[in-house]
Amino acid sequence: MGTTQLESVQEPKYWHLKTVLSEALDSDFAVGEILPNERELAARFGVARATLRQALEQLELEGRLQRRRGVGTTVAPPRVGVAVSTAQRDWSGGGPAEAWQPVDCSVAVAPPSVAAVLDVEADEPVHIVRRIRVTNGQAVAAELLYVPSSSVPELSAIDAPSGPARARRVLRELHRLGLDGQDRSVELGSARVDDAKELDRLPGAPVLVVTTRYLAAGGTAALSVATYRADTCRLTFGDSGDLEISHHDEERQAS
């Protein structure tokens, strides 16, 4: 494919190049294979490196490519399905093996936007539980769960150590509270430094940010901000999978 052929196409060059590259990934490269560097690829397809970079970024966003630390750009495996159920969560830790694993817990002031949702004072410390979601042995999501003291009133009477043990204590107390419901939103974002490290991504890599507000007693019992790897995850919402973010189909389907 040369520059002349690309120039004859009405759609943006990088978008057509993305299609050409996608076909090349299917026919010429294996999963996990490292792609040639940008200079070689630009020469191969007869395009400017800026155009190539746009196409590669789009393919990464769609989950066809992965940028790996110290390795380069590789062909990504098919996305794994990750269910995000609307059923009431079992905070006690008795769920399936593919579940959230507590990593740490701290007591600190929440960001202003989080404090507003939790309806706590701007300077009021809350419990911040950090967890990692593992699927098929791979970390696919990192979560910050913000829990106000009012949701776990008995916690102060418990000698909870730091780290994962403290996180599990907070979750058990939250489980005792029970939930009346939840609401959720999802948006495209960029990986923060901490999340990128835990998910083996580069800072700024595309991620899916799922924000969930857990409701109890007419208020917000907890707020979850979960960052999913956009290159490996296909999120399914609802017990019947009524909304899906798929690997090959860019359209979102909702019931």
List strands and helices in order, with pairings.
Layout: H1 3-7, H2 13-28, H3 38-45, H4 49-61, E1 65-68, E2 72-75, E3 80-84, E4 100-109, H5 112-118, E5 125-135, E6 138-147, H6 164-177, E7 181-190, H7 193-198, E8 206-216, E9 219-229, E10 233-237, E11 243-244, E12 253-254
Parallel strand pairs: 3-10
Antiparallel strand pairs: 1-2, 4-5, 5-6, 6-9, 7-8, 8-9, 10-11, 11-12
Helix pairs in contact: 2-4, 3-4
Q: Please describe the biggest sheet, giving its number of strands, its sense, and whether it closes into a barrel.
A: 6 strands, antiparallel
Strand order of the largest sheet: 4-5-6-9-8-7
Ranges where pLDDT stays below 50 over 5 or more residues in a row are 240-255
The coarse overall form would be elongated
Structural class: alpha+beta
Oligomeric organization of the protein chains? single chain
Strand percentage lies at 25-35%
Give me the count of strands: 12
Computed over alpha carbons, the radius of gyration is: 21 Å
Mean residue pLDDT:
79
Fraction of residues in H or I helices: 25-40%
Distance between the termini: 41 Å
Count of helical regions: 7
Pattern of helices and strands: HHHHEEEEHEEHEHEEEEE
Describe this structure in words.
- This protein is α+β, with helices and mostly antiparallel strands.
- 27% of the residues lie in helices and 33% in strands.
- It is built from seven helices and twelve strands.
- The protein has helices spanning 3-7, 13-28, 38-45, 49-61, 112-118, 164-177, 193-198; strands at 65-68, 72-75, 80-84, 100-109, 125-135, 138-147, 181-190, 206-216, 219-229, 233-237, 243-244, 253-254.
- Helix 2 crosses helix 4 and helix 3 (38-45) packs across helix 4.
- It is elongated.
